[in-house]
Write a structure and sequence with these properties.
By secondary structure, the chain is mainly α. It has one domain (about 35-210). The chain has helices spanning about 15-30, 35-55, 70-95, 100-125, 135-160, 160-180, 185-210.
Length: about 210
């Protein structure tokens, strides 16, 4: 038996491993959503939304920038809604072909976010009316950041994602520091350290993904 000259040469071990690695990286890029879609929209929302809140409701009842009272909270909710939409669309496109346990984990995790914030709104809405305005604002923001940090910790544990878990630790520490600093300061700490931390986490996750590819 002879081998024709135009037959493809068999791959050596190094070429075969390189081909497997390239195919695996391509599959990962198609299945995993861009990590920046998970972190950056939320980071911008926190940076701008809580930043506006600090400028309007600064410590000791001061106002650094004159604006309607409704504007900071409205802007924050609009930005958070936009971030949720960007993340949902990006995740749906990336995970539309994924089934089984991975899809179930993602679905249940998303449900946990919805139910968690529904519970938060019920509790904070019931209690905040009995508090002064500055403490009511602190209650809403502190509970929201606390729940966000806890859910990031849970997500990091579910998917063994170090970046997500570390961000959960960071947001929890930022929230505690802001609460200890008091009303007004909490918004500034969450805006700069919390929003900035999410932007940084998105870039770190992108670099890790690139290195894997």
């Amino acid at each position: 038996m002879t081998v024709e000259d135009d037959d493809p040469a068999p791959l050596d071990a190094a070429s075969a491993m390189r081909l497997i690695h390239e195919q695996r990286a391509t599959t990962t890029r198609h299945l995993e959503p861009d990590p920046r879609l998970h972190y950056w929209p939320w980071g911008v929302a926190w940076l701008v939304g809580f930043g506006l809140y600090f400028l309007r409701f600064s410590p000791d009842g001061r106002t650094l920038v004159a604006m309607p009272q409704w504007l900071p909270l409205t802007a924050l909710f609009v930005l958070l809604g936009g971030a949720a939409a960007v993340f949902a669309v990006g995740s749906a496109r990336a995970w539309r072909h994924v089934t089984g346990d991975s899809a179930r984990r993602g679905s249940w995790y998303g449900t946990a976010w919805g139910l968690g914030f529904l519970s938060l709104f019920a509790v904070a809405g019931r209690v905040s009316g009995s508090l002064p305005d500055d403490l009511a604002g602190l209650l809403w923001s502190a509970l929201s950041v606390a729940l966000t940090g806890a859910l990031h910790l849970a997500g990091g544990a579910i998917w063994l994602d170090r970046t997500l878990f570390r961000l959960g630790v960071w947001l929890t520490a930022v929230n505690i520091a802001g609460v200890l600093a008091g009303p007004g300061w909490h918004a500034l700490v969450v805006s700069v350290a919390g929003g900035g931390g999410m932007l940084l986490a998105g870039e770190i996750a992108r670099l890790h993904r690139r290195d894997r590819g």
